[in-house]
Amino acid sequence: xxxxxxxxxxxxxxxxxxxxxxxxxxxxxxxxxxxxxxxxxxxxxxxxxxxxxxxxxxxxxxxxxxxxxxxxxxxxxxxxxxxxxxxxxxxxxxxxxxxxxxxxxxxxxxxxxxxxxxxxxxxxxxxxxxxxxxxxxxxx
Length: 140
Hints:
There is one protein chain. With 140 residues, the protein is of the alpha+beta class. Helix content is 38%, strand content 28%. It has four helices and five strands. The protein has helices at residues 21-36, 46-64, 96-102, 106-116; strands at 10-17, 70-78, 81-88, 120-125, 132-139. Strands 1-2-3-5-4 form a five-stranded antiparallel β-sheet. β2 and β3 form a beta hairpin. The protein is globular. The relative contact order is 0.19.
């Protein structure tokens, strides 16, 4: 099965050390990416996307750094879609549905904001089950 993100014409990959500065660097890179892809900084998805990304990177730094010294942020985009994923190599697979229903914690915020923008949040497990990516897809 082809990943829908692979068919989007724009792509950028950022590898960061799993440390506190990763959040700032990821946010700054996201601002640069959306600008380069023609999405204005005042577009309704940009502010929430930055918050969602910050929560995901913070979670990886906080919970996965012992087993995942690097975090990878993958951006994909097209004329009507902006998507990004945060990947780490920690085997824990959080339940996005449970986080949303529990309405607490960073993942609950991620899912609530994503759904509120008409987007999707999907957890993808690595083939070896030793890592995962959380993909956020937002309509433009």
